Amino acid sequence: MEYNDRLEQVVLNFSGLLDCFESDYIKKPEAHNLTIKQLLYLTLISSMSSCTITTLAKKLSVKKPTVSNQISALEIKGLVRKKLSSKDARIHLIETTSKGKSVLALRRKLHRDFAIKILKCLNEDEKILSLDLMNKIYQSNKDLLK
Predict the structure, then answer these.
(1) What is the domain count for the chain?
(2) Is 78 helix (H, G, I), strand (E, B) or coil?
(3) In this structure, how many other beta carbons lie within 10 angstroms of the beta carbon of residue 103?
(4) In sequence order, what are the residues at sequence separation of 6 or more whose Cβ sits closer than 8 angstroms to the Cβ of residue 51?
(5) Which of 56, 92, 141, 142 could bridge across to 82 with cysteines, CB 3.0–4.6 Å?
(6) Distance from chain centroid for Cα 85
(7) Mind listing the pLDDT tens digit for each residue in 26-40?
(8) How many CA atoms lie within 13 A of 106 on its CB side?
(9) Between residues 21 and 97, which one has the greater pLDDT?
């Protein structure tokens, strides 16, 4: 198996592991029966300083009605709310509620537990090396997050 094939397989394996963790997470009552897509929206909303339907649609390269449907579902679950912009009353800002922030805190715990689980099989030197390498990979590719 050549290098690129091995690398692809490793990425797929890690993705599968994280999918299993995420799948278990969204089944928890505290996760409010979120879909993976709703979890993505909630995470994005919490990371944006000024979030509107338009900014989300642009960020995700989808149409505004698609975003509106997802926001409505999150509103019904009490995870986000719309509020009028103080600068322009025509604009509704979308923000996470305390309930939404709790869901995201639970997700951060899941990611922490996942990291601990995958590094458990390594000795201290291997853990340090793995973390350094993963951080290097992240740093050289973080522009993909924009």
Answers:
(1) 1
(2) coil
(3) 26
(4) 44, 45, 93, 94, 95
(5) 92
(6) 25
(7) 777 777 788 888 988
(8) 20
(9) 97
